[in-house]
Structure to design on (480 residues):
Protein backbone atom coordinates (compact mmCIF):
# COMPACT_ATOMS: atom_id res chain seq x y z
CA UNK A 1 0.00 0.00 0.00
CA UNK A 2 1.59 3.21 -1.09
CA UNK A 3 0.55 6.80 -0.44
CA UNK A 4 -0.81 8.28 -3.67
CA UNK A 5 -0.72 12.08 -3.82
CA UNK A 6 -2.59 12.11 -7.10
CA UNK A 7 -5.50 10.25 -5.44
CA UNK A 8 -5.40 12.74 -2.56
CA UNK A 9 -5.75 15.61 -5.03
CA UNK A 10 -8.70 13.82 -6.66
CA UNK A 11 -10.71 13.19 -3.51
CA UNK A 12 -9.84 16.43 -1.72
CA UNK A 13 -12.77 18.51 -3.09
CA UNK A 14 -15.25 15.77 -2.12
CA UNK A 15 -13.87 15.55 1.40
CA UNK A 16 -13.95 19.32 1.71
CA UNK A 17 -17.70 19.14 1.01
CA UNK A 18 -17.91 16.71 3.91
CA UNK A 19 -15.93 19.05 6.17
CA UNK A 20 -18.44 21.79 5.48
CA UNK A 21 -21.34 19.56 6.51
CA UNK A 22 -19.43 18.41 9.60
CA UNK A 23 -18.83 21.99 10.68
CA UNK A 24 -22.42 22.98 9.88
CA UNK A 25 -23.77 20.05 11.92
CA UNK A 26 -21.47 20.97 14.82
CA UNK A 27 -22.50 24.63 14.83
CA UNK A 28 -26.23 23.92 14.57
CA UNK A 29 -25.94 21.08 17.09
CA UNK A 30 -24.08 23.39 19.50
CA UNK A 31 -26.70 26.10 19.24
CA UNK A 32 -29.45 23.55 19.87
CA UNK A 33 -27.50 21.98 22.76
CA UNK A 34 -27.01 25.43 24.32
CA UNK A 35 -30.73 26.18 24.11
CA UNK A 36 -31.90 22.70 25.19
CA UNK A 37 -29.42 22.72 28.09
CA UNK A 38 -30.70 26.05 29.35
CA UNK A 39 -34.28 24.83 28.98
CA UNK A 40 -33.58 21.67 30.97
CA UNK A 41 -31.68 23.62 33.65
CA UNK A 42 -34.56 26.08 34.07
CA UNK A 43 -37.28 23.41 34.05
CA UNK A 44 -35.37 21.40 36.66
CA UNK A 45 -35.57 24.44 38.94
CA UNK A 46 -39.31 24.74 38.43
CA UNK A 47 -41.27 25.12 41.67
CA UNK A 48 -43.59 22.41 40.37
CA UNK A 49 -42.11 19.14 41.53
CA UNK A 50 -43.89 17.31 38.74
CA UNK A 51 -42.19 19.40 36.03
CA UNK A 52 -38.73 19.27 37.60
CA UNK A 53 -38.92 15.48 38.19
CA UNK A 54 -40.18 14.72 34.69
CA UNK A 55 -37.50 16.90 33.11
CA UNK A 56 -34.86 15.23 35.27
CA UNK A 57 -36.04 11.78 34.26
CA UNK A 58 -36.05 12.59 30.53
CA UNK A 59 -32.58 14.16 30.73
CA UNK A 60 -31.27 11.13 32.62
CA UNK A 61 -32.82 8.83 30.04
CA UNK A 62 -31.23 10.66 27.09
CA UNK A 63 -27.85 10.81 28.80
CA UNK A 64 -28.02 7.15 29.68
CA UNK A 65 -28.53 5.88 26.13
CA UNK A 66 -25.99 5.97 23.27
CA UNK A 67 -26.13 8.80 20.76
CA UNK A 68 -25.99 6.30 17.90
CA UNK A 69 -29.17 4.59 19.11
CA UNK A 70 -30.91 7.95 19.45
CA UNK A 71 -29.90 8.92 15.93
CA UNK A 72 -31.34 5.65 14.58
CA UNK A 73 -34.54 6.32 16.45
CA UNK A 74 -34.92 9.87 15.18
CA UNK A 75 -34.10 8.99 11.57
CA UNK A 76 -35.45 5.44 11.11
CA UNK A 77 -38.17 4.99 13.76
CA UNK A 78 -39.90 8.37 13.85
CA UNK A 79 -41.06 8.00 10.20
CA UNK A 80 -43.23 5.11 11.43
CA UNK A 81 -45.32 7.66 13.32
CA UNK A 82 -45.30 10.07 10.43
CA UNK A 83 -42.30 12.24 11.35
CA UNK A 84 -39.95 12.18 8.39
CA UNK A 85 -36.83 14.27 8.82
CA UNK A 86 -34.00 15.03 6.37
CA UNK A 87 -30.74 13.35 7.51
CA UNK A 88 -28.95 16.56 8.53
CA UNK A 89 -31.97 17.82 10.50
CA UNK A 90 -32.30 14.48 12.28
CA UNK A 91 -28.57 14.55 13.02
CA UNK A 92 -28.62 18.07 14.42
CA UNK A 93 -31.62 17.24 16.62
CA UNK A 94 -29.83 14.12 17.89
CA UNK A 95 -26.62 16.00 18.68
CA UNK A 96 -28.49 18.93 20.23
CA UNK A 97 -30.70 16.79 22.47
CA UNK A 98 -27.90 14.48 23.56
CA UNK A 99 -25.41 17.21 24.35
CA UNK A 100 -28.15 19.44 25.76
CA UNK A 101 -28.46 17.00 28.67
CA UNK A 102 -24.75 17.54 29.37
CA UNK A 103 -24.74 21.32 28.93
CA UNK A 104 -27.73 21.40 31.32
CA UNK A 105 -25.32 20.32 34.08
CA UNK A 106 -22.95 23.16 33.11
CA UNK A 107 -25.83 25.62 33.35
CA UNK A 108 -26.92 24.15 36.67
CA UNK A 109 -23.46 24.63 38.16
CA UNK A 110 -23.19 28.13 36.72
CA UNK A 111 -26.58 29.17 38.09
CA UNK A 112 -25.84 27.64 41.51
CA UNK A 113 -22.63 29.68 41.61
CA UNK A 114 -24.52 32.97 41.58
CA UNK A 115 -24.66 34.19 45.19
CA UNK A 116 -27.98 33.82 47.02
CA UNK A 117 -27.80 37.52 47.87
CA UNK A 118 -28.25 38.34 44.18
CA UNK A 119 -31.68 36.67 44.18
CA UNK A 120 -32.61 38.55 47.32
CA UNK A 121 -31.38 41.90 45.98
CA UNK A 122 -33.40 41.31 42.81
CA UNK A 123 -36.47 40.66 44.93
CA UNK A 124 -35.84 43.73 47.09
CA UNK A 125 -35.63 45.68 43.80
CA UNK A 126 -39.04 44.19 42.99
CA UNK A 127 -37.87 42.53 39.76
CA UNK A 128 -40.19 39.78 38.55
CA UNK A 129 -38.82 36.26 37.96
CA UNK A 130 -38.23 36.82 34.24
CA UNK A 131 -36.35 40.09 34.84
CA UNK A 132 -34.35 38.43 37.61
CA UNK A 133 -33.23 35.68 35.23
CA UNK A 134 -32.45 37.85 32.22
CA UNK A 135 -30.91 40.88 33.95
CA UNK A 136 -29.32 39.47 37.10
CA UNK A 137 -28.78 35.72 37.19
CA UNK A 138 -27.91 34.64 33.64
CA UNK A 139 -25.56 37.57 32.85
CA UNK A 140 -23.52 36.48 35.88
CA UNK A 141 -23.88 32.74 35.40
CA UNK A 142 -23.10 32.51 31.67
CA UNK A 143 -19.61 34.01 31.18
CA UNK A 144 -17.83 31.66 33.61
CA UNK A 145 -19.47 28.62 31.98
CA UNK A 146 -18.48 29.48 28.41
CA UNK A 147 -15.21 27.46 28.50
CA UNK A 148 -17.04 24.39 29.86
CA UNK A 149 -19.73 24.73 27.18
CA UNK A 150 -17.09 25.11 24.46
CA UNK A 151 -15.46 21.90 25.72
CA UNK A 152 -18.66 19.98 25.09
CA UNK A 153 -18.98 21.52 21.64
CA UNK A 154 -15.49 20.28 20.75
CA UNK A 155 -16.43 16.83 22.04
CA UNK A 156 -19.59 16.97 19.93
CA UNK A 157 -17.54 17.90 16.88
CA UNK A 158 -15.49 14.73 17.25
CA UNK A 159 -18.66 12.63 17.46
CA UNK A 160 -20.16 13.92 14.22
CA UNK A 161 -18.89 10.84 12.26
CA UNK A 162 -21.81 9.03 13.96
CA UNK A 163 -24.07 11.01 11.64
CA UNK A 164 -22.74 8.92 8.74
CA UNK A 165 -24.91 6.12 10.18
CA UNK A 166 -28.02 8.08 9.21
CA UNK A 167 -26.74 8.97 5.71
CA UNK A 168 -25.61 12.53 6.47
CA UNK A 169 -22.91 13.29 3.93
CA UNK A 170 -20.44 14.64 6.43
CA UNK A 171 -16.69 14.12 6.31
CA UNK A 172 -16.65 10.49 7.44
CA UNK A 173 -19.42 9.46 5.09
CA UNK A 174 -17.75 11.16 2.11
CA UNK A 175 -14.48 9.43 2.99
CA UNK A 176 -16.22 6.04 3.28
CA UNK A 177 -17.91 6.44 -0.06
CA UNK A 178 -14.72 7.38 -1.94
CA UNK A 179 -12.91 4.56 -0.15
CA UNK A 180 -15.59 2.02 -0.99
CA UNK A 181 -15.67 2.95 -4.66
CA UNK A 182 -11.88 3.04 -5.11
CA UNK A 183 -10.90 0.32 -2.60
CA UNK A 184 -8.27 2.71 -1.19
CA UNK A 185 -8.64 3.50 2.48
CA UNK A 186 -5.31 4.93 3.58
CA UNK A 187 -5.65 8.37 1.96
CA UNK A 188 -9.32 9.12 2.75
CA UNK A 189 -9.09 7.93 6.39
CA UNK A 190 -5.79 9.73 6.97
CA UNK A 191 -7.31 12.90 5.58
CA UNK A 192 -10.36 12.51 7.84
CA UNK A 193 -8.06 12.25 10.84
CA UNK A 194 -6.00 15.21 9.64
CA UNK A 195 -9.06 17.40 9.13
CA UNK A 196 -10.38 16.60 12.59
CA UNK A 197 -6.99 17.15 14.17
CA UNK A 198 -6.46 20.53 12.52
CA UNK A 199 -9.93 21.80 13.45
CA UNK A 200 -9.66 20.42 16.99
CA UNK A 201 -6.30 22.10 17.55
CA UNK A 202 -7.70 25.33 16.23
CA UNK A 203 -10.71 24.98 18.56
CA UNK A 204 -8.46 24.36 21.56
CA UNK A 205 -6.63 27.62 20.85
CA UNK A 206 -10.01 29.34 20.70
CA UNK A 207 -11.05 27.64 23.94
CA UNK A 208 -7.92 28.87 25.77
CA UNK A 209 -8.72 32.36 24.59
CA UNK A 210 -12.31 32.04 25.84
CA UNK A 211 -11.02 30.88 29.22
CA UNK A 212 -8.82 33.96 29.53
CA UNK A 213 -11.51 36.29 28.21
CA UNK A 214 -14.35 35.10 30.45
CA UNK A 215 -12.79 34.72 33.87
CA UNK A 216 -14.87 35.04 37.00
CA UNK A 217 -16.68 38.30 37.57
CA UNK A 218 -15.45 39.63 40.90
CA UNK A 219 -18.07 40.08 43.57
CA UNK B 1 -53.77 59.64 65.94
CA UNK B 2 -52.31 58.53 62.58
CA UNK B 3 -52.57 54.93 61.41
CA UNK B 4 -49.54 52.72 61.98
CA UNK B 5 -47.50 52.08 58.80
CA UNK B 6 -46.52 48.57 59.92
CA UNK B 7 -48.61 46.30 62.09
CA UNK B 8 -47.14 42.92 62.93
CA UNK B 9 -49.49 40.59 64.74
CA UNK B 10 -48.55 37.24 66.23
CA UNK B 11 -45.97 36.18 63.64
CA UNK B 12 -44.53 32.71 63.99
CA UNK B 13 -41.68 31.37 61.92
CA UNK B 14 -39.54 28.25 62.29
CA UNK B 15 -36.48 27.02 60.46
CA UNK B 16 -36.80 23.26 60.88
CA UNK B 17 -37.28 22.68 64.59
CA UNK B 18 -35.85 26.08 65.55
CA UNK B 19 -38.52 28.65 66.37
CA UNK B 20 -37.11 32.03 65.25
CA UNK B 21 -40.24 34.08 65.77
CA UNK B 22 -42.63 33.09 68.51
CA UNK B 23 -45.78 35.16 68.21
CA UNK B 24 -44.01 38.44 67.47
CA UNK B 25 -46.15 41.58 67.50
CA UNK B 26 -45.17 45.20 66.96
CA UNK B 27 -46.47 48.46 65.54
CA UNK B 28 -44.49 51.11 63.73
CA UNK B 29 -45.72 54.64 63.13
CA UNK B 30 -45.01 56.50 59.87
CA UNK B 31 -41.61 58.19 59.90
CA UNK B 32 -40.46 56.33 62.98
CA UNK B 33 -36.81 55.25 63.24
CA UNK B 34 -36.54 51.92 65.01
CA UNK B 35 -33.46 50.08 66.18
CA UNK B 36 -33.84 46.32 66.56
CA UNK B 37 -31.23 44.89 68.91
CA UNK B 38 -30.68 41.57 70.59
CA UNK B 39 -28.54 38.43 70.57
CA UNK B 40 -28.03 36.55 67.31
CA UNK B 41 -30.82 34.12 66.57
CA UNK B 42 -33.31 36.32 68.41
CA UNK B 43 -35.32 36.92 65.23
CA UNK B 44 -34.52 40.58 64.49
CA UNK B 45 -33.03 39.92 61.04
CA UNK B 46 -35.78 37.40 60.30
CA UNK B 47 -38.54 39.95 60.80
CA UNK B 48 -36.81 42.34 58.38
CA UNK B 49 -36.50 39.53 55.82
CA UNK B 50 -40.16 38.69 56.34
CA UNK B 51 -41.16 42.32 55.76
CA UNK B 52 -39.14 42.24 52.49
CA UNK B 53 -40.95 38.95 51.61
CA UNK B 54 -37.64 37.06 51.45
CA UNK B 55 -39.02 34.54 53.94
CA UNK B 56 -42.57 33.29 54.27
CA UNK B 57 -44.39 33.37 57.60
CA UNK B 58 -45.80 30.29 59.27
CA UNK B 59 -48.60 32.13 61.05
CA UNK B 60 -49.88 35.59 62.02
CA UNK B 61 -50.64 38.74 60.09
CA UNK B 62 -48.73 41.74 58.80
CA UNK B 63 -50.31 44.95 57.58
CA UNK B 64 -48.47 47.68 55.68
CA UNK B 65 -50.35 50.98 55.48
CA UNK B 66 -53.51 49.15 56.49
CA UNK B 67 -53.17 46.50 53.78
CA UNK B 68 -52.34 42.87 54.39
CA UNK B 69 -48.87 41.85 53.21
CA UNK B 70 -49.20 38.07 53.08
CA UNK B 71 -52.96 37.93 52.64
CA UNK B 72 -55.48 39.45 50.34
CA UNK B 73 -59.17 39.88 50.62
CA UNK B 74 -61.38 38.17 48.08
CA UNK B 75 -65.14 38.38 48.54
CA UNK B 76 -64.69 39.29 52.19
CA UNK B 77 -62.45 36.25 52.75
CA UNK B 78 -58.81 36.41 53.71
CA UNK B 79 -56.61 34.22 51.55
CA UNK B 80 -52.88 33.78 50.88
CA UNK B 81 -51.42 36.57 48.75
CA UNK B 82 -50.44 35.79 45.17
CA UNK B 83 -47.24 36.98 43.49
CA UNK B 84 -49.00 39.99 41.97
CA UNK B 85 -50.17 41.19 45.36
CA UNK B 86 -46.71 40.66 46.86
CA UNK B 87 -45.08 42.60 44.01
CA UNK B 88 -47.42 45.52 44.62
CA UNK B 89 -46.78 45.50 48.36
CA UNK B 90 -43.01 45.21 47.85
CA UNK B 91 -43.00 48.63 46.16
CA UNK B 92 -43.53 50.20 49.56
CA UNK B 93 -40.43 48.59 51.04
CA UNK B 94 -36.70 48.80 50.33
CA UNK B 95 -33.85 46.88 51.91
CA UNK B 96 -30.10 47.27 52.38
CA UNK B 97 -28.16 44.08 53.07
CA UNK B 98 -25.20 43.21 55.25
CA UNK B 99 -23.20 42.00 52.22
CA UNK B 100 -24.34 44.86 49.93
CA UNK B 101 -25.50 42.47 47.16
CA UNK B 102 -24.72 44.96 44.41
CA UNK B 103 -25.10 43.55 40.92
CA UNK B 104 -21.40 42.92 40.11
CA UNK B 105 -21.87 42.91 36.32
CA UNK B 106 -23.39 46.40 36.26
CA UNK B 107 -21.66 49.72 36.91
CA UNK B 108 -22.69 51.89 39.85
CA UNK B 109 -25.27 54.01 38.05
CA UNK B 110 -26.80 50.98 36.29
CA UNK B 111 -27.23 49.34 39.70
CA UNK B 112 -29.34 52.32 40.72
CA UNK B 113 -31.34 52.79 37.50
CA UNK B 114 -32.09 49.10 36.83
CA UNK B 115 -35.12 48.68 39.12
CA UNK B 116 -36.90 51.97 38.28
CA UNK B 117 -36.48 51.32 34.56
CA UNK B 118 -37.66 47.69 34.76
CA UNK B 119 -40.37 47.86 37.39
CA UNK B 120 -41.78 51.36 36.87
CA UNK B 121 -40.93 51.93 33.23
CA UNK B 122 -39.03 55.10 34.09
CA UNK B 123 -37.31 56.45 30.94
CA UNK B 124 -33.53 56.05 30.96
CA UNK B 125 -32.77 59.79 31.08
CA UNK B 126 -35.11 60.41 34.01
CA UNK B 127 -33.85 57.33 35.87
CA UNK B 128 -30.23 58.46 35.40
CA UNK B 129 -30.98 61.99 36.56
CA UNK B 130 -32.61 60.65 39.72
CA UNK B 131 -29.78 58.13 40.19
CA UNK B 132 -27.17 60.91 40.01
CA UNK B 133 -29.08 62.90 42.67
CA UNK B 134 -29.14 59.85 44.93
CA UNK B 135 -25.48 59.01 44.27
CA UNK B 136 -24.65 62.62 45.04
CA UNK B 137 -26.51 62.35 48.31
CA UNK B 138 -24.51 59.27 49.36
CA UNK B 139 -21.31 60.88 48.11
CA UNK B 140 -20.76 58.44 45.22
CA UNK B 141 -21.55 60.61 42.19
CA UNK B 142 -17.92 60.61 41.02
CA UNK B 143 -17.90 56.78 40.90
CA UNK B 144 -21.06 56.46 38.80
CA UNK B 145 -19.27 54.61 35.97
CA UNK B 146 -17.15 52.37 38.21
CA UNK B 147 -17.81 48.66 38.61
CA UNK B 148 -18.69 47.42 42.11
CA UNK B 149 -15.46 45.39 42.29
CA UNK B 150 -13.51 48.66 42.17
CA UNK B 151 -15.20 50.03 45.30
CA UNK B 152 -14.43 49.65 49.01
CA UNK B 153 -17.01 48.04 51.28
CA UNK B 154 -18.22 51.39 52.57
CA UNK B 155 -18.59 52.72 49.05
CA UNK B 156 -20.50 49.59 47.97
CA UNK B 157 -22.87 49.98 50.88
CA UNK B 158 -23.51 53.64 50.04
CA UNK B 159 -24.35 52.64 46.46
CA UNK B 160 -26.64 49.92 47.82
CA UNK B 161 -28.47 52.56 49.86
CA UNK B 162 -28.89 54.72 46.75
CA UNK B 163 -30.19 51.67 44.85
CA UNK B 164 -32.81 50.98 47.52
CA UNK B 165 -33.86 54.64 47.56
CA UNK B 166 -34.31 54.73 43.79
CA UNK B 167 -37.68 53.03 44.10
CA UNK B 168 -38.83 55.65 46.64
CA UNK B 169 -39.97 53.15 49.27
CA UNK B 170 -42.04 54.30 52.25
CA UNK B 171 -40.18 51.91 54.52
CA UNK B 172 -36.46 51.19 54.51
CA UNK B 173 -34.97 48.11 56.15
CA UNK B 174 -31.29 48.09 57.14
CA UNK B 175 -29.97 44.63 57.99
CA UNK B 176 -26.66 44.93 59.85
CA UNK B 177 -25.42 47.21 57.11
CA UNK B 178 -22.07 47.96 58.78
CA UNK B 179 -21.29 44.49 60.13
CA UNK B 180 -19.22 43.43 57.11
CA UNK B 181 -17.22 46.65 56.97
CA UNK B 182 -13.71 47.39 58.18
CA UNK B 183 -13.97 49.63 61.27
CA UNK B 184 -12.63 52.74 59.51
CA UNK B 185 -15.38 52.45 56.84
CA UNK B 186 -18.32 52.19 59.25
CA UNK B 187 -18.65 55.91 59.86
CA UNK B 188 -19.15 56.92 56.20
CA UNK B 189 -22.15 54.60 55.95
CA UNK B 190 -23.61 55.74 59.28
CA UNK B 191 -23.25 59.36 58.14
CA UNK B 192 -25.36 58.63 55.07
CA UNK B 193 -28.02 57.07 57.27
CA UNK B 194 -28.02 60.06 59.63
CA UNK B 195 -28.48 62.33 56.64
CA UNK B 196 -31.30 60.14 55.36
CA UNK B 197 -33.04 60.26 58.74
CA UNK B 198 -32.70 64.04 58.90
CA UNK B 199 -33.76 64.80 55.34
CA UNK B 200 -36.60 62.34 54.72
CA UNK B 201 -39.71 61.21 56.54
CA UNK B 202 -39.14 57.58 55.58
CA UNK B 203 -39.87 54.92 58.15
CA UNK B 204 -36.61 53.17 58.95
CA UNK B 205 -36.04 49.83 60.66
CA UNK B 206 -32.50 49.07 61.58
CA UNK B 207 -30.97 45.83 62.82
CA UNK B 208 -27.59 46.70 64.28
CA UNK B 209 -24.84 45.92 66.72
CA UNK B 210 -23.68 49.55 66.69
CA UNK B 211 -25.24 50.50 70.01
CA UNK B 212 -23.90 54.05 69.98
CA UNK B 213 -25.45 54.68 66.60
CA UNK B 214 -28.73 53.02 67.61
CA UNK B 215 -28.85 55.29 70.66
CA UNK B 216 -28.44 58.50 68.60
CA UNK B 217 -30.43 57.43 65.58
CA UNK B 218 -33.52 55.66 66.85
CA UNK B 219 -36.76 57.07 68.20
CA UNK B 220 -37.45 53.72 69.78
CA UNK B 221 -35.36 50.65 70.53
CA UNK B 222 -36.77 47.12 70.48
CA UNK B 223 -34.87 44.44 72.35
CA UNK B 224 -35.40 40.98 70.84
CA UNK B 225 -34.82 37.68 72.55
CA UNK B 226 -35.96 34.18 71.53
CA UNK B 227 -38.32 35.39 68.85
CA UNK B 228 -40.15 38.01 70.89
CA UNK B 229 -39.74 41.63 71.87
CA UNK B 230 -38.73 41.50 75.51
CA UNK B 231 -38.41 45.22 76.13
CA UNK B 232 -38.90 48.42 74.18
CA UNK B 233 -38.62 52.09 74.82
CA UNK B 234 -36.76 55.30 74.15
CA UNK B 235 -33.01 54.78 73.58
CA UNK B 236 -32.14 56.32 76.93
CA UNK B 237 -34.52 54.02 78.80
CA UNK B 238 -33.21 50.89 77.12
CA UNK B 239 -29.52 51.70 77.15
CA UNK B 240 -29.28 53.53 80.51
CA UNK B 241 -32.03 51.93 82.55
CA UNK B 242 -32.99 48.54 81.10
CA UNK B 243 -35.69 46.96 83.22
CA UNK B 244 -35.57 43.37 82.02
CA UNK B 245 -32.80 41.10 83.22
CA UNK B 246 -32.22 39.72 79.72
CA UNK B 247 -31.72 43.22 78.31
CA UNK B 248 -29.27 44.03 81.08
CA UNK B 249 -27.28 40.84 80.46
CA UNK B 250 -27.16 41.47 76.72
CA UNK B 251 -25.99 45.07 77.07
CA UNK B 252 -23.32 44.05 79.59
CA UNK B 253 -21.99 41.48 77.14
CA UNK B 254 -22.01 43.97 74.27
CA UNK B 255 -20.15 46.57 76.32
CA UNK B 256 -17.66 43.96 77.51
CA UNK B 257 -17.05 43.12 73.84
CA UNK B 258 -15.91 46.70 73.32
CA UNK B 259 -18.98 48.30 71.76
CA UNK B 260 -19.60 51.91 72.67
CA UNK B 261 -23.04 52.85 74.03
Amino acid sequence: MEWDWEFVRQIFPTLLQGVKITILATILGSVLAAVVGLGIALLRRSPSRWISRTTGFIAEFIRGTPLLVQLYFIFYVLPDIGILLPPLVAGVIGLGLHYGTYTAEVYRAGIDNVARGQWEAAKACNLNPRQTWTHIILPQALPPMIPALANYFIAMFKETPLLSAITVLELMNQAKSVANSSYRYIEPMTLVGAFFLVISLFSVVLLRWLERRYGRIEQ
Amino acid sequence: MPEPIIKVDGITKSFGSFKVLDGLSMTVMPGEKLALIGPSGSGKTTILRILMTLERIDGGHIQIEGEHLYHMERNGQLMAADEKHLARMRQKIGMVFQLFNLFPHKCVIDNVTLAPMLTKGTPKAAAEKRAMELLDMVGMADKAKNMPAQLSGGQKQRVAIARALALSPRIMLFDEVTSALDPELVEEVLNVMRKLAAETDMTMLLVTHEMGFAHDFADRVLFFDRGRIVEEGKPDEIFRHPKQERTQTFLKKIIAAGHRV
Q: What stands out?
A: Chain B has a mean pLDDT of 93. The longest strand of chain B covers residues 18-28. The CA atoms of residues 136 and 142 of chain B lie 8 Å apart. Chain B touches chain A through 27 residues (CB under 8 Å).
